[in-house]
Amino acid sequence: MALLILLPLGVLVERSFAEPGGYGLGYYRALGSLDEAGTFLVPPLEAIGNSLRYAVAATAIAVVIGGLAAAALTRRAGRLVRGFDALLMLPLGVSAVTVGFGFLITLDEPPLDLRASWILVPLAQALVGVPFVVRTMLPVLRAVDERLREAAAVLGASPWRAWREVDLPLVRRALLIAAGFAFAVSLGEFGATVFIARPESPTLPVAVARLLGRPAPSTTARRWPSRRF
Description:
Layout: H1 2-17, E1 18-19, E2 22-23, H2 26-29, H3 44-75, H4 79-88, H5 90-93, H6 96-106, H7 120-143, H8 146-154, H9 159-188, H10 193-196, H11 204-213, H12 217-223
Antiparallel strand pairs: 1-2
Helix pairs in contact: 3-7, 3-9, 7-9, 8-9
């Protein structure tokens, strides 16, 4: 784990400080400005802010939908419920590129024309995060003793109050873990986002992909010297 995960991350951090004349913060200062090659329409620092905003919105959507789905699966049983559970896992088996392309060509006509709306990116990211929320919360919800809910109902608690005072304290930690998974997945999601993120509002993974795809003239010139025929 240390060799395959921590070492590459440590090298990336070290290289981020390595400037041509030594170590410094020049590359970090450049995050707030546009590059001369015109790779971005906004500074990279703004792309980081876009990723954080989209991830927060996608996390909220994924936690609400995934939490309600997990609660529904806990209180029901049967073949239909198993089919619904499998349907919730479908985003894990479908390429994120397919999801993004499907969003792009489907939500393009009124009353669901969302191509120009910012909410389209969090919706696609939330779709990828919902399975993680369901798989995290479902075992914990199933472990809650049903007699506790029945006792709360006998004492006059409404279903909402019983959930708030019985279920929520028991599943709070799982809820926070599920939100953390959804946030991490949304923050690093690239396959669907690259299709639907607008050029003036790129996310961090999209910005990194554009930087990696930009040619380096100096390196190319050294490796492939020009020849006259």
